[in-house]
Amino acid sequence: MADEIQLIKKMETNIDFVISDFKNLQKRYPNEYIAVFGGKVIGDDKNLAALNGEINEKIKSISKRLLVLIKYIPEERVDIII
Model's pTM, two decimal places? Predict the structure, then answer.
């Protein structure tokens, strides 16, 4: 159980980074996918498959790859109305 909590906390670090720095990420990576690991952007690409391949090359450990957050960064704010 402690291991699972530790993994969740590590993933929360990535999520918090994206949320807190979203405006800067939009300026730097408009209409791109970014990969976040340890609260840092470790890769970006307009093509998701290419980014995934890049991450697989950078991070050999499957358990560490599970902690990578991949997020699409739109150029502009998108509102969803239901």
Answer: 0.84
